[in-house]
Amino acid sequence: MSDALDRLFEGLPERLTVDQLAHVLGLGDRTITYRWLRDGIVPAIKLGKTWLILRDDIKEHLRSQYNVPHSTDNDGAHTNEE
Q1: Residue 12 above 80 pLDDT?
Q2: How confident is residue 67, by pLDDT bands cut at 50, 70 and 90?
Q3: Helix or strand or coil: residue 57?
Q4: How far apart are CA 13 and CA 52, in angstroms?
Q5: How many Å apart are CA 71 and CA 82, to the nearest integer?
Q6: In what order do the strands lie in the sheet with 15-16?
Q7: Ranges of each domain in the chain
C-alpha cells in the first residue's frame, strides 16, 4: 500500500499546489479540488486566499482511507475484527 503512495508522490515538493494535488488525486477539474479542500475531504490549511497543502499530510490522510477487506468466518459471513 504505502509503496504505491510513495511512488505517486515521488518527486513532489513538501508543499503542493492545487494543480499538483488535483493531478495526484486524478481530479481533472480544479473546481472539485477546491471543493474538496473547502469541505475538508483532504487536509489543508487556508491562509487568507491561499491553501497550504502539505504533501505528507495528504499521504497520511490517503493511507488512513484505504478500504481493507474484512476477514470472513468459516460460514462465509463477514466479521469486523480489528
Answers
A1: yes
A2: confident
A3: helix
A4: 12
A5: 10
A6: 15-16, 50-54, 45-47
A7: 2-64
Measured at the CA of 63, the angle between CA 62 and CA 68, to 5 degrees, comes to 110
pLDDT digits (tens, 9 = 90+) for 21-55: 999 999 988 999 999 999 999 999 999 999 999 99
User: How do strand 45-47 and strand 15-16 relate by DSSP bridges?
Assistant: unpaired
Distance CA(23)–CA(27), nearest Å, equals 6
**Ranges of H-type helices in the chain:** 2-9, 18-25, 30-38, 55-64
Locus of grid cell 469541505? 39
Residues 6+ apart with CB under 8 A from 19: 30
Please, what is the average pLDDT of the chain?
88
